[in-house]
Amino acid sequence: MAVDLAPEPAVAELVTRTAQFVRDVVVPVEVANDGVVPSESVRRELQAAAKEAGVFAPHVSPEYGGHGLDMCARAAVFEEAGYSLLGPVALNIAAPDEGNMHMLEAIATEDQKARYLAPLAAGDVRSCFAMTEPAPGAGSDPDALTTRAERVPGGWRIDGRKWFITGADGAAFAICMARTAGEPGDRGGATMFLVDADNPGMKVGRHVPTLDESLFGGHLEVDFDGCVVPDEAVIGEVDQGYRYAQVRLGPARMTHCMRWLGIARRAQDIAVAHAAQRELFGARLADLGMAQQMIADNEIDVAASRGLILRACWELDQGRSAGLEVSMAKTFTAEAVWRVVDRSLQLCGSVGVSGDLLLGRFLREVRPFRIYDGPSETHRWSIARRVVGRHTAAARA
C-alpha cells in the first residue's frame, strides 16, 4: 500500500503562505517583545494581518471564516504557525481558543454557535476552559472534580474553585466543567456549561506565576460562587461532559504538539546557523563531532515527532478515539521538543543563554508542555494499561 505524507496542493500552498507570513510579519513582532504578546491591540493587529494574508483560522469551517482543514492537514499548517511563539495567536489557533472552537463546532447548538463560536472564530473575543482545580480537585485525574452544579428554577447554580485556567484574563466566556451527579472520585457525572464573563457569579482572580508567558491571557484562578446560568448554557447532554470533552482533548493535544514542533524547528535553525559560522579549536563548530551529534539528534526528534503526530491525526480523522496514538504522540513530542530546544541552546553556548537569542524564552515555554494536557507519567500509565489490556484480551481469545 502506498504511503503519501505530502499534503494536498491547496494545503501545501497554505503551508507556504503561512510560513512566509510568520517569518515576515510575526517573527519581527515576537523578537521585539521577547516572545510575548504585549497587548490586546497587538493581538488584533496580528490577526488582521493574518486575515489579509489569507491564513487566518485554518481549522474552522468556511462558514465561520476558516479553511475547514482536517487534523492531518492542520499538522503542517500549525507547525509553520508555531515557528514563532506569536504565530498561533496571529492565526487564532492558540490554546485554549482553538480547542474550544473545535468542540463548539462539533457539539454546540446552532444558537450556541451563533452566540459563542462565531465571534470566537472571528477573533472578536477570547475564551477559556475551566476544568482544572486546586488539589485535591480535578487535574490529571478528572474524576476528582469538585466543582458542582445544582438545578435551580430555569437553570443551574455552579459553585467551585478553578485554577490554572489559561486565557481567563480578558476572556468573554468560560466553558466550565462541573459535577452534576455523583461525588468526587466517581466516574462520569460531569456537565459542561457556557458562562459569560459578566456573570456576577464568576470571578477571575490572580495570575498564577509560571515559567511560560506566551499564552495570551495568562493562567488564572477562577471562582464560581452562586453562578447561575440558564438551561441553554449546557453544552450537549447533562452528565455527559467527560464524553464530550474527549471531542476536544485528543485533537487539542495534537494541535499543541504541532505548534511546539514549530518552535523546536526554529530552535534547530538558530543553532545550525550559529554552528555553521562559529569557529573554535581551528574548525567550524558544525564540523565537530559532538556538535554534529546534537544537530543530528535534533533532526531525528523532529522527524519522529512529526510521524507520531500524523499517525494520531489520521486516526482522529477516521473518527476513532485514538487514545493510544494520541498519548504516544503527546508524550514523545513534549519530551522531544524539550530536548531539541535544550540541545540548541547548548550548541549556542553563552549567546544561547543570553537574551540576544530567544532560546532561553523557548526553553521556558516548552518545559510546561510535559505537564499540560496530561503529564508524561499519566500518559505512560494510560499507554501501558491499554497495551496490557490488549495482551490480556488476546490471551483469553
UniProtKB/TrEMBL annotation:
Residues 128-208 form the Acyl-CoA oxidase/dehydrogenase middle domain. Its cofactor is FAD. GO terms for biological process: fatty acid beta-oxidation using acyl-CoA dehydrogenase. Keywords: FAD, Flavoprotein, Oxidoreductase. Pfam families: Acyl-CoA_dh_1 (PF00441), Acyl-CoA_dh_M (PF02770), Acyl-CoA_dh_N (PF02771). Residues 14-124 form the Acyl-CoA dehydrogenase/oxidase N-terminal domain. GO terms for cellular component: cytoplasm. Residues 239-387 form the Acyl-CoA dehydrogenase/oxidase C-terminal domain. GO terms for molecular function: acyl-CoA dehydrogenase activity; flavin adenine dinucleotide binding. CDD domains: ACAD. SUPFAM superfamilies: Acyl-CoA dehydrogenase C-terminal domain-like, Acyl-CoA dehydrogenase NM domain-like. PROSITE patterns: ACYL_COA_DH_2 (PS00073). It comes from the Bacteria. Belongs to the acyl-CoA dehydrogenase family. Homodimer. PANTHER family: ACYL-COA DEHYDROGENASE FAMILY MEMBER 11, MEDIUM-CHAIN SPECIFIC ACYL-COA DEHYDROGENASE, MITOCHONDRIAL-RELATED. This is Acyl-CoA dehydrogenase family protein. It comes from Pseudonocardia broussonetiae.
